[in-house]
Amino acid sequence: MYVIVVGAGDIGTPLVDLATDSGNEVVVIERDEERAERASRQYDCLVLNDDATSKETLQDAGADRADALISTTDQDATNIMVCLLAQELSVPNIVSVVHNPEHMNVFEQIGVNTMQNPQSLIAEYLYRAVSRPSIVDFMHIGEEAEVFEITVGPDAPIAGKTLREADEEDLIGGQTLIVAVERNGADTPITPRGTTRIEAGDLLTVYSGVGATPEVTDVFGHTEDHD
Amino acid sequence: MYVIVVGAGDIGTPLVDLATDSGNEVVVIERDEERAERASRQYDCLVLNDDATSKETLQDAGADRADALISTTDQDATNIMVCLLAQELSVPNIVSVVHNPEHMNVFEQIGVNTMQNPQSLIAEYLYRAVSRPSIVDFMHIGEEAEVFEITVGPDAPIAGKTLREADEEDLIGGQTLIVAVERNGADTPITPRGTTRIEAGDLLTVYSGVGATPEVTDVFGHTEDHD
Amino acid sequence: MYVIVVGAGDIGTPLVDLATDSGNEVVVIERDEERAERASRQYDCLVLNDDATSKETLQDAGADRADALISTTDQDATNIMVCLLAQELSVPNIVSVVHNPEHMNVFEQIGVNTMQNPQSLIAEYLYRAVSRPSIVDFMHIGEEAEVFEITVGPDAPIAGKTLREADEEDLIGGQTLIVAVERNGADTPITPRGTTRIEAGDLLTVYSGVGATPEVTDVFGHTEDHD
Amino acid sequence: MYVIVVGAGDIGTPLVDLATDSGNEVVVIERDEERAERASRQYDCLVLNDDATSKETLQDAGADRADALISTTDQDATNIMVCLLAQELSVPNIVSVVHNPEHMNVFEQIGVNTMQNPQSLIAEYLYRAVSRPSIVDFMHIGEEAEVFEITVGPDAPIAGKTLREADEEDLIGGQTLIVAVERNGADTPITPRGTTRIEAGDLLTVYSGVGATPEVTDVFGHTEDHD
Amino acid sequence: MYVIVVGAGDIGTPLVDLATDSGNEVVVIERDEERAERASRQYDCLVLNDDATSKETLQDAGADRADALISTTDQDATNIMVCLLAQELSVPNIVSVVHNPEHMNVFEQIGVNTMQNPQSLIAEYLYRAVSRPSIVDFMHIGEEAEVFEITVGPDAPIAGKTLREADEEDLIGGQTLIVAVERNGADTPITPRGTTRIEAGDLLTVYSGVGATPEVTDVFGHTEDHD
Amino acid sequence: MYVIVVGAGDIGTPLVDLATDSGNEVVVIERDEERAERASRQYDCLVLNDDATSKETLQDAGADRADALISTTDQDATNIMVCLLAQELSVPNIVSVVHNPEHMNVFEQIGVNTMQNPQSLIAEYLYRAVSRPSIVDFMHIGEEAEVFEITVGPDAPIAGKTLREADEEDLIGGQTLIVAVERNGADTPITPRGTTRIEAGDLLTVYSGVGATPEVTDVFGHTEDHD
Amino acid sequence: MYVIVVGAGDIGTPLVDLATDSGNEVVVIERDEERAERASRQYDCLVLNDDATSKETLQDAGADRADALISTTDQDATNIMVCLLAQELSVPNIVSVVHNPEHMNVFEQIGVNTMQNPQSLIAEYLYRAVSRPSIVDFMHIGEEAEVFEITVGPDAPIAGKTLREADEEDLIGGQTLIVAVERNGADTPITPRGTTRIEAGDLLTVYSGVGATPEVTDVFGHTEDHD
Amino acid sequence: MYVIVVGAGDIGTPLVDLATDSGNEVVVIERDEERAERASRQYDCLVLNDDATSKETLQDAGADRADALISTTDQDATNIMVCLLAQELSVPNIVSVVHNPEHMNVFEQIGVNTMQNPQSLIAEYLYRAVSRPSIVDFMHIGEEAEVFEITVGPDAPIAGKTLREADEEDLIGGQTLIVAVERNGADTPITPRGTTRIEAGDLLTVYSGVGATPEVTDVFGHTEDHD
Asked: Which ipTM did the prediction report?
């Protein structure tokens, strides 16, 4: 792909890293001279030290043949202007960071894909880390359901049981599915079957139709967080 | 829980929102006067407009009885000083944002939980949004495996087939598991069985032991992104 | 009318002056505290010292019942964000200043009326003031035609002649029409007829299908500016 | 002409554009280094990066042989000092922007032509755009009279009538004159005669001795703005 | 007198001190808040913390009944704008500091009294202090003549002589006049007569038609500065 | 002379002008880069862009062979440090500007010649210019006495009289001496004798033992300023 | 004592702490508002938020009855001005920090006690901490001699010996004297005698006429630092 | 030794001076460009103008083979981050300045040697200089004991006596030991014996088990400071 990244700041920089690593042709537009220079030094990409809210700059960046443009500046107003100009220049795929949740709708109205509330996402992770420290990672599915990674505690009711046994003992509700089992830091998770025995210390990937509520997570041995 | 949040900036603000919403007792420490005032106005929490790298400030914030402290300033050095002082004051659960990946190890050495590379996470989402726009959300499991949400395209090989049929036609590999099916914006995803028929427009939650590679995702009808 | 004016700077201030003078209900949104205070002191209007790129601010300003919103900040990106939010809030008439001519199209695409290039307009006036000092004011009609005000010089060919005489002597081309005659500073211009005699010192309002070219203006006695 | 332009900011830049385009010899004086460089890069003119309130600078700019000097800085005090020095150096034609209306008189006292209140002009245009959106452009003639461009609405009383018919039906008052008719975006306006039929969508140039009052504009079909 | 002083900086402050001490009614206009406050605290005068280039401010300061206005800001352009506005408001006596010698003429043209080059005056004093340290103070009379104060050196030819003797010995040229003699720090200088005996250590006030040249000053015993 | 001038600001610049004009060898020390460059461009002198409160800088400036050092920065503290270092380096003649009158004594204690209160001097000139506009220049002699230049008004009692007549009519007190008479802009003043007739318009240099009080100046025709 | 401390920065703050703790009457002068407030809050002393280079401020601080003044600002020039004013006000004991070693002499010339090079002192401590980590503290006596504290290493030649034995075995040179022995963290050091036995882990206070050279320190068991 | 010095500010600079003078191989890391350049110019060492809180920078500085790292920046948080990274890179000897006494413990916890409160040390010296001016230098030994240098006053009880006589007269308590005598500015102090006679003006190095209390110091003739 030919990708234009607008902004080489906190978000733009790892993005450029990722996009160049994956072998894409990347052009960066960054207004700040120091940041532009650093990006130019660190990554294998063309860096324009210019204002991306100018059509000319976007054309110089190759907007006519770009497959995608990603706007990552920390000003929503700047991002929207960049996206509108990119639309005018017919960039096929346009994505933007949005900082103020109130602005989400505006971006959607004009047909720009958005990365919803990056800071909120981080905030939620941090909050989980203290409110339910046993949950390592998680992903929302619709309104309630969740997939989450959880470590099995030493005294967990499920520890030492096979999935079939756990099922028979009604330890796992109908809405819950153990998707994968990571054990001893092995690279590849085990796809669990009825005969798979869960051990303390396992890192389970679990799907729960009702989310990671205490009722669901208790069986994995973490009772500390009934808040 | 009694939670101390250090920093009321881009990350701290939604975190305070979340923590107060969940009914926790929250104390915010923010050095910048304007931010401190805004936080105080918006959330039901105590806000100290002071320097969190002072033990006295942490004590004023109730570090002796706090269940957790989350450090969210944009300076890793500040975060580490705050975490060390919090350790000295015996705060049981200490979490910190880390901005520079090189500093991850240092935080781990001193025993602080960290939120790994928030900006990298965002960058990866943005990159996926342009490189694989059909993937709505995703979560890494170990090194390779992934759980991801994907919409079923109109011409997808799997569209119109039951899971059993898909299985019989070898459309879905052994390492792939369809975990949940969201349909027509219903609140609760369907837990799929062998007789469940996949339709174009369904939003599937899929587990893949080898990640969301083209080989895995093609069956859901998205061929555009063989980069 | 109920009018929201965004920005109380160089352009916003005389606009508020005009709009309040005409008896409209005016709400001003200005981010800068000092400017907000000044506007509040000087004009009979409500002034919100807040950020207009927030939907909440626009709602506080009464966007739901406003007849019009005029965005006058000196940042095009800010103006476009304000206009998009105003559209979302269904303000019926939205107008914006646009500073960079490249951005005109973007504003038009999203359906916002614009005030085209205010600085260019001023520049043209200034240029006329030195290149054709006898032309007091002017207005472009389409690509070439112009209406302009011009003073009759003491040695002007037309001075002392009636319009009929001027017509007979072919002093005035077919594309030229004398629309009005201001004389001796009288409040009301004379609507000219065939018998109206043009005098040196008259201030004529002239329509010319080919613009205010030297060929057209020479008859009014100004030969100095054949550049 | 040989023209000295003082200031290459928001107003100075389009002025230099205009003046160089028209083939004049232009010298720009701009104190700010960045602006001076940009002007030098973009236009075919000499740019002095210096302080125009120094006689030496004005002499370097060729004040002794300049036909005109236009002062466009955003400080009235600076403009007046520049104008006084230009007078001392006998520049024949001196024009200045004036920002504070209170200062108009001072400029006139010392004999400098001024561009009256550029921001007020813009403010009036913006206000018209919301209070009488059908009026596209306008020009004041004396105290009350106006020339204005107006689009004919679909239900306008005058639509479908010849001018003679309109006159006979008393649709157009004695103080009103239709000067030109632009139709279908043609380059040249039609000079209207008695037999010219006005159509909905036409863009008329109208002279009205009493200004663009509702009484005058109603016949063109715009009743929405009787405020 | 009723005096308006514009600027309460390095020059304005001692001026206000002097003017209030002499019992005048003084109004100070100072834009900088801190300086305005300090002046208000220290002196018995009204202080307006406002912009003096506004006619309204000058009217608030009582320009209509002021006997004089003295403009002391460090910007010549500001001073000239203030003076022009003061003229428009008919202040009878207007004086201004001028910093750039090139601007002297401009001030004179518009009829403002000026304090010529304050810094040059100081520079000359400093230069004298090193080039002719025996000269304590001096004043130019026309092009060449000077009045100066000089101390009589211990070995001065004139020391111990009466003025008559000095005259007879041709020590004092025809163009030189000893105007006053200060001795032993007495408050009142002695008006010298022919019998007055000059002593080493006396501080003489001398008039010289040719200035304080070495030829003139040598008789007072200072030979060190024949440069 | 070899002179070191510290500071190339408002006072230092005309001082360097004067000192280089008089053929001295001048070295300038100025910390600010821009000022240093300008001084270097304009004057025939060596300019060190360095901190003068460093002994090394003063040595580089040739303090060991300098005849004099003049410190003109706008910080008294800086000036005193420079003077003390210059004393340590045995510069024979050291002079400094002093801004705060309270600091005069301190400079004198350490044996530095000072230029007393430059701003006060200017302030006094300005004040005289409005309080006694007829007095053109003046110099204090001791506590009370003054030498001053005054123009003879058209209705002055002394106008048209010889000095002898004026003396006989007791117009001039015993403490007053007319030192010189400038007439018609001639280069050389007239040394007045008993037969010299004073004319309206003459510019007199007058010595008065009691200062330029109204009693003294009235005879020269200026009654306006009995304040 | 009545002590005036000038400056409440890095050095001034612990000084005020010390001086108030010891029961002195302390007045602090600090120009920075924030620092002044903090000092006022933390210590039992009067704090003047003013400029100490003003005689008036020093008088307000009670300079007439002060026993001592300590100037601790980070500007040598400011410190010297403060000290000179304090001398003029006859403060009996005046001490100042000096930052630039070149300025030491100047302070001494005017008779001010100085704290020599605080940063150099710290630098030397830091350097010792890495070059001779066994030396805990030290003090120079004249040019070469030193008193130092050193811990006795486990394999030190002197460990386990009485001083007499050490003397007899020539372990300790004639220029070395063991002054005190701290053992087991006891409050009071032991005054050593011939029969006192040195043990590994003792912290000795040693005087050496030739300084803490390796030859001298080896006997205490630290050979690592022969650099 | 191979030493890395972080920070080339007030403390870092004399440290680099010392460390290079002693023949060590020194690498300096300084973020500020100006400071980095100055250090590079003045000292024989490698200077990296970079951020020391980056592991890469420390590696570039040779952290893998460094014998020691000394962190001297004025931010405790920065110092601790640098120290933690240096630990991770296994630098054998790590020392840091600590500014806030509250942070001492944190540094100790992670095992970093610290230079305790440099500003407090200076403050104590300054305080001694005014409270006991006769004490020239001092060093604490444990809680109470001190070694100090003191000058013998002209009327001191001990002046003119041998140590034996002083002992016999009980002038010197059992806890006090005169360690060395500096006389007449000689390079080498005298090691005192019983027959050594103390003279007024001698500079004594004294050990006192109870500190430099008035009871101890009175015998050396300084009674002024019984506070």
From this structure: 0.76
